[in-house]
From TrEMBL, chains A, B, C, D, E, F:
<dbReference type="InterPro" id="IPR005493">
    <property type="entry name" value="RraA/RraA-like"/>
</dbReference>
<protein>
    <submittedName>
        <fullName>Ribonuclease activity regulator RraA</fullName>
    </submittedName>
</protein>
<dbReference type="Pfam" id="PF03737">
    <property type="entry name" value="RraA-like"/>
</dbReference>
<dbReference type="InterPro" id="IPR036704">
    <property type="entry name" value="RraA/RraA-like_sf"/>
</dbReference>
């Protein structure tokens, strides 16, 4: 279990509260990263603020029937339960279910406990259960499907805070996890600050573009901007 | 066609109106049943009471073009139409489309007729059409996707009330079918009463747990409960 | 690039504003067409009027990394950008992403520009990004998934207004595209007028049927109608 | 269980021993049938004569753990075992596993027994086990994959000789089943004689075409034939 | 990295050289284990002796482009290369590629080195490259597909000898891995000896059954055996 | 239809006759190309020389029933037939079937004609029929599956020699196509010469490595080579 991951500055995290996953995806693309979007998950419940936090991971392997009786949860060392009690405040619990959503990886009680503990969100490429209850929490939650069966049915919790895959994205403990209406994206820890620095300008420019489009401007020469457009944007943003 | 399936007591059915599919899944798991959740279907429309009723089944095989012209519906013995007119009041119509949602298995008119006749719900691992209209009915309806093409395009109705598969779950006529926001689960007929007996305590305990979690309790020793927690719950529930 | 596709009469288009995709699917089925429903896409945002317009197509092939750097968008001839600026008013932009929704095929800025230009809707069997923003536009938009990565990640825009596949449906430039809550269906251009002529009666009859069902009528002899039912419907509709 | 299916003439069956599944597919296509090829199965073992026989069907539903203990095979009425002992000589045993090949639907011992009883072949859209042994039998066998787990793991044998789906093809008891290196195709019983009448000429013509192609002829005007080519073929075949 | 897994007796391993994966699957099924068959992999090359050995595992996560340049192989600690040099003699290298066969997990050079080092086989739910060369080795090799791209394209080697999933089967370091023509099955370490004890009788009985079937015996009362059959078998096997 | 694609030097083509697709994949990876391997296709028939030639493409869209009657083949301008008669000698016919192998894209007669005309091979991400006959030709043929149904069932031939996708790889007319036992890879035209220049050394080095491994060398320091190893290889190759 990785223990000493670097903590990101609160200011950096704050920037991502107003950054969209498409903008982040484009800045990762610029750096050659094409696979960091978590494929196939969607958010429970309606509109809410961005999910932003560093990753704390839980790895599942396929369940083996003799190892996954209901009694296992009585073990205080069961990794799923330990995860719920140890994910650091402000972190996102990211679970690797190998893309199998035919069983849950967590449910309403654990989600409520995570919310209480200040967890920043949960992401799983497996299922979640009690989705109606979870969707009413403030805690952002992303999963591949609602799925009533207990995790024991398919998933054996095995490791905490190791590098995992989630929805075909690589996730390292401490990576920045951002979620919005489009889904969840993973920003490698060492890229988070420089992307934060770039993204504010990018979001401002996109707002400017939307404004121009609303006024009837063609996108040619606007998005991406010609030198003239860029100058005009910069003039605007100085005001 | 199976005709004499045992009818469940109204009291048993009543219990399941307040039982969640995750709790049922766990009690089935305890009995060794891992595959009774209907995979891949979701509910049309928003929040509503649980769907609860015994299964009445309709089996489709793949359509063969020469047998599935629009005229077939003129036959008063067409199994889909017979199903709609004969599903007993309070039963759920469960359809086996072999997981193929590229065509509908029923639409708005049939759904409305089923509602009128007192049907408790419809479940299909194929498509439904007129989903906007169906979502406004009181009748709960679960499908794999909205799909405009008539069932004849892909599905040939062949059998009524035989054992089927639906969303990879085995379904026998008369089995108890329960649906909530997480999806649909099949309770084998002979297990329904004993699970009803167990589930009320389980739901009460989970409500107690949620309450404790809201107050800040750790889940370790709470869920599953230590002897002390269990005692405390029992003391509470006596009040 | 096909340039001279026949324009449909406004009156024909108008009819389809009140036609459902299931009814259209049935009339296509009657003519032997089983594959014109766009499989696997759903509408962003809530209830809204039907999407109706002729198809203007954009074809993507899989991206090749050396050809898809962010700079390509600076080319005023980039087919995606040209598509956005040239889709004729009242047409639907239909995109062929080979069913790969792991990247977007368009986003919020382009969607807003399309709305401004009077585009009748967008349909893609790939992803869309900025789905929250798009769902707030009046422009109807259908996609296989929300997906944050830029189209360059997976999709190379190659052709405008050639015949394509979208969601396993064949789409020819100029075909009529209709979308409602169930999804999107493609009406071959040369069939649009005759289907328009037939569908009004069909929708009226289905409304009559729903009414009868609401009053408690069995569907046997009603849907499809016996001679007596048909006569009764005709008597009603004359009033 | 259907019991009185019409038996095809030996002469008709004989014709199909020299007919290819592509030719049959084309003649079915001519009659509007597009879905009778069994998708996703392949033949065990190397080159061998065509499999030809009428269908005897076995339907599986998903296994339910409490109903599928190893003891069930002790029941002499277990449908899988009854199937093996009652499939009529010269018939093909066709199994519906809902396309799930993660467990076997039969193994080496049953295959050997079927061969001994004069069964014409086995086809399953599930798995087969002991594939090395089966591939050494004369009995043609087609499956979706080699799969070691016993059928009980996933498949509950439920019905004999009812209409089924196999590899997305509709199969009615008594339908003609033909298999070659390309796979398996289902000929509806009532079409078998007329297709037999047509296919001999078709195969003769294709042999003629191959001969012409070997001599350097273009396919334009040859395949399909111009009037001149057709005349030349007819002249040849009279010799 | 797990280091002290128990070594199985040579005598136990020897038994499995003559045991089939279907027989093992059945004995695991008897113990409640339904998921230990490695789904979706097949053997390269033709008939050969069973693969038998304990599991040594290699875990991959999805590749991240900045971490997977060709230079990484220069690192003598790269887990894939360390795996190849440290898998103990007689062990099977089992790789977890999350079922993604769009890139290789190993190729001809590593396979040849593994053969030289006395490795008992390789199993991956990803791809293998140089399959023609590997199929000519004595080393048994199982994969999901031939796949030319280097592992770096999709797979980032991360861990050695931790519990993994492979083809949806759970695999713990030290588990017994057996492969034959049907595929690969995982026997939990603690069950290996008792299954070895049972399987010899089972294989002998199946040989007896095949013999009886060859003589024309019905399977009813034979397989599974009636008391009479069992007695007869026991009499035979004493000779 | 693209007509003037550059022809590659015979010497360049010759080099690729002795190059493996894994080596090519690695050299493309070095240049940032990760998606040029044609996923999901395999070669018909046994061992044979590499397939090497420039791409001539045929694009299919989904079939529409009214446009795809058997008579269409009588049209001498039908794109599939034109493709067969116009693919230049030494070129590979690459077909885009959108990954749908449920129908054929070509069969034995067309394959034989292609062989006669000096075509270098066929590649399709759809099906092929008459696979037994095709596997006996010298013409290399790669497909996603054997599939008896005529192409008209699912595929409508629409375009010749335009950029396409095949098995998720981008293919431009004139690109170099190489196939071996592992599958098929696409080399962008402008990279073919420089990769040819690099690959001979690479193949020689891999042969040297295999030789060292056969003698018992560890792969550490060998593959990739340390400076010492590289020097030793260069000394060897000078001899």
């Amino acid at each position: 279990m990785v223990t000493n991951t670097e903590k990101l500055d609160a200011a950096v995290l704050e920037v991502f509260k107003n950054a969209s996953t498409p903008s982040i995806a484009t800045l990762l693309y610029k750096r050659g990263l094409r696979t960091n979007f978590v494929q196939g998950v969607s958010r429970l419940g309606g509109d809410r603020p961005n999910m932003v936090g560093q990753a704390f991971t839980l790895r599942y392997i396929p369940a083996r029937e003799d190892l996954n009786q209901l009694e296992v949860f009585k073990d205080p060392e069961h990794p799923q339960r330990v995860a719920v009690e140890t994910v650091p405040e402000g972190h996102v619990l990211v679970m690797d279910c190998r893309g199998d959503a035919s069983a849950a990886s967590a449910g309403g009680i654990l989600a409520k406990r995570l919310e209480y503990r200040g967890c920043a969100g949960i992401v799983t490429d497996g299922g979640l259960r009690d989705t109606h209850e979870i969707s009413k929490l403030r805690l952002p939650a992303y999963c591949a499907a609602a799925s009533a069966p207990t995790n024991l049915t398919k998933h054996h919790a095995i490791d905490l805070n190791v590098p995992i895959g989630c929805g075909t994205a690589p996730v390292f403990p401490g990576d920045l996890v951002v979620g919005d209406a489009d889904g969840v994206i993973i920003v490698p820890l060492h890229m988070a600050s420089e992307i934060a620095a770039e993204i504010q300008d990018m979001e401002a420019f996109e707002a400017f573009v939307l404004d121009e489009v609303a006024k009837g401007s063609s996108i040619i020469g606007l998005y991406p901007p010609s030198a003239e457009t860029r100058a005009r944007f910069e003039a605007c943003s100085k005001k």
